[in-house]
UniProtKB/TrEMBL annotation:
Listed PANTHER family: COCE_NOND FAMILY, PUTATIVE (AFU_ORTHOLOGUE AFUA_7G00600)-RELATED (PTHR43056:SF10), PEPTIDASE S9 PROLYL OLIGOPEPTIDASE (PTHR43056)
Organism: Aliicoccus persicus
This protein's name: CocE/NonD family hydrolase
GO MF: dipeptidyl-peptidase activity
Pfam families: Peptidase_S15 (PF02129), PepX_C (PF08530)
Signal peptide boundaries: none
Xaa-Pro dipeptidyl-peptidase C-terminal domain ranges (all copies): 293-544
Coiled coil: none
InterPro entries to which the protein is assigned, alphabetical: AB_hydrolase_fold, CocE/Ser_esterase, Galactose-bd-like_sf, Xaa-Pro-like_dom, Xaa-Pro_dipept_C, Xaa-Pro_dipeptidyl-ppase/CocE
Length: 551
């Protein structure tokens, strides 16, 4: 029988006298180190209860707290806005209780991960370690189109009241098509103050800087275990956060005490051995709680266990070979950046074209490929319109029948090829519009013809010079752009093909560019864009893939 003591709805005062509600799980023996989890999703779920009991049974005081304005907590919910200061006050309150020994860690996923970084920026003296899971990076890294993904509107609806709202009562396929996009909330039948605010800030300004931390990691110096999955829709955040905090050569005390764990998982990590079209085998599931416990035991209890003793701080799952590998750093120091150039003779429109992908620039047939992008008929993105998981290991071969999708493939591979690391594309492009998008997707083409998505990324042309300002195009002018295609860890097996798609939409993962150059929030006018990608002698477009030696 568990000897954990649970106290519900403990009122925790913040510095402005607003009281937040917490459930406290106490171990048999106290005082003990504390673990703080702050959530907008309700602290009474079965999964959170089981998590609290597990860590309390292993000698920790666990505090699950409803963030300000959610659940049983007082105040007004404003996503991320108060979480840094509230997190500081919550940690120091717990540290001061007689059942806590003054040493506190934080953990949690998604929103619960983001708020850990916002809290750590304020440097609470009792905070000694953190476990951010599937944590976003800065909002404008997540939303390269300059406005939140339409899925974000679904999230805001879900957390729009004090308790979780039922998203199934809304026809999201229709809501996502709303123009102007600033009225998307009204199409749900529920006004969202936060959506309206975000629509007024389409560049990286003080509004976003308040909840950003990518350029502020110099303020954070504590051990951290960063956890995510290759198919997490927030995937770009976790490797980026790790690389900003882990530096073996820095003077920071705990820079070497940062760890990265990446599995073959979606946003709901470590739950299944398969995803979409792919099966990863039984080793893809791990004892995640045990992994986290060992980390906290080392850094909160000072237990001399073997966590991190091999000096390999990166644990990643290699899809395709379906095995775990340990590395010293991320990106992998021994992965060789290799350029795969695009070209075609007759045209790469659809998978029935002759687009090819080659590492030999002398094999490029100089020219260009063009297509029309119609915002009223965007390239669909395979997704559950109400899921927190925006994309998975899905087959895009049917979508590749469209003429507005350029398809470039290698020949069948003669040996297994491991692509492990950040993915970047450089394109030379032009359009007859003042603004448009360019989307790049990496796929693994199986012998049966299925084209399985690995990862993708997008550049909105008005933000090609950065998110701080909008710079429209001159129609007809050629631009050199980079597209961040995020990260992957996949072995493309012999007999498979490496493929990329280039298009101008991925709806509803990204909002549609209407191609007019007008306000992203308020515009309703639509223009069909005629877009071109070049592969000329001095304008070779390519994707750069980090190739890991498997021998």
């Amino acid at each position: 029988m568990s000897q954990v003591t649970i106290t519900r709805d403990v009122r925790v005062p913040m510095r402005d006298n607003v009281e937040l509600s917490a459930d406290i799980y106490k171990p048999k023996q106290t005082p003990a180190p504390g673990i703080v989890l702050r959530t907008p999703y309700g602290k009474l779920s079965k999964a959170q209860h089981d998590n609290g009991v597990f860590f309390a049974e292993n000698g920790y005081v666990v505090m699950y707290m409803d963030v300000r304005g959610r659940g049983d907590s007082d105040g007004e919910f404003s996503p991320y806005r108060n979480d840094g200061i509230d997190g500081y006050d919550s940690i120091e309150w717990l540290a001061a209780q007689d059942y806590c020994n003054g040493i506190v860690g934080t953990m949690g996923g998604s929103y619960l991960g983001h708020v850990q970084f916002l809290t750590a920026l304020h440097q609470p003296p009792s905070l000694k370690a953190m476990i951010p899971i599937v944590s976003p990076s800065d909002p404008f890294v997540e939303w390269p189109t300059g406005v939140p993904s339409p899925h974000h509107m679904c999230w805001l609806f879900m957390v729009g009241g004090r308790q979780m709202q039922n998203v199934d009562v809304v026809d999201w396929e229709q809501v996502y098509k709303t123009l102007p996009i600033e009225k998307m909330d009204e199409a749900t039948g529920r006004y969202s103050k936060h959506w309206k605010e975000e629509m007024q800030h389409n560049t990286f300004d003080d509004y976003w800087d308040h909840v950003a931390y990518q350029e502020k990691f110099d303020r954070i110096d504590i051990p951290a275990l960063h956890i995510s999955g290759w198919y997490d829709d927030e995937q770009i955040g976790t490797p980026l956060n790790f690389t900003r905090m882990f530096n073996p050569t820095t003077d920071k005390k705990h820079a070497k005490d940062n760890y990265l764990l990446m599995g073959p998982w979606p946003h709901g990590i470590n739950q299944s051995t398969s995803l979409g079209e792919l099966e990863f085998g039984p080793d893809s599931l791990i004892d995640l709680k045990g992994y986290q416990l060992k980390f906290f035991d080392k850094y909160l209890k000072g237990i001399d266990n073997d966590f991190g003793e091999d000096k390999k701080n990166v644990d990643i799952f290699l899809m395709g070979h379906n095995k775990w590998v340990k590395e010293e750093n991320w990106p992998l120091p021994d992965a060789v950046p290799t350029k795969y150039y695009i070209s075609s003779e007759r045209g790469a429109n659809s998978r029935f074209g002759d687009g090819k992908l080659t590492t030999d620039p002398s094999e490029v047939d100089f020219g260009s490929d063009s297509y029309n992008y119609d915002p009223l008929d965007p390239v669909p993105y395979v997704t559950d319109v109400v899921s927190s998981q925006i994309g998975g290991a899905d087959d895009y071969s049917a979508i590749e029948r469209r003429d507005d999708v350029l398809v470039y493939s290698t020949d069948e591979l003669t040996e297994d090829t491991a692509v492990v690391g950040p993915l970047r594309a450089k394109l030379y492009v032009t359009s007859d519009c003042k603004d448009t998008d360019f989307m790049v997707k990496l796929l693994d083409v199986h012998p049966n013809g299925k084209a399985i998505r690995m990862m993708d990324g997008m550049t909105r042309m008005r933000y090609r010079e950065g998110m701080e300002k909008e710079v429209l195009m001159t129609p007809g002018e050629v631009y050199e752009i980079e597209v961040d295609v995020w990260n992957t860890s996949n072995v493309f097996k012999a007999g498979h093909k490496i493929r990329i798609e280039i298009s101008s939409s991925a709806f509803p993962k990204y909002d549609r560019n209407l191609n007019t150059g007008e306000s992203l929030a308020t515009s309703e006018a639509v223009k069909v864009a005629h877009n071109t990608v070049f592969f000329d002698k001095d304008q070779l477009s390519y994707i750069e893939l980090p190739i890991k030696n498997l021998k």
